[in-house]
Amino acid sequence: MATTVELTRFSVAPHQTDAMLAARPAMLADFRADRAGFLGARLVALPDGEWLDIVEWRSADDFAASRAKGANRPGIAAFFAAIDHLVTAEEGVLAEPE
């Protein structure tokens, strides 16, 4: 089974950056507790207030099940609330051996 990679690029208003970063640990804890197949995530700061979230899932089905749950836990909801707008969202498969 190939690892599924979620690539989400989003913008955060400057006054929300601290709130987004503060919410990140609770969001990750909620994902670990509530999302089967969640393997990990990395957050990359880009220019102009944009961010890239790189999330790895055990499978495409696990990723789809996570999306269906949305912001169902407080840590996830707080992180999502700090996002100004979604720029792009893509899904791929890890091409390099782990």
UniProtKB/TrEMBL annotation:
Residues 7-68 form the ABM domain. GO terms for molecular function: monooxygenase activity. This is Antibiotic biosynthesis monooxygenase. Pfam families: ABM (PF03992). Keywords: Monooxygenase, Oxidoreductase.
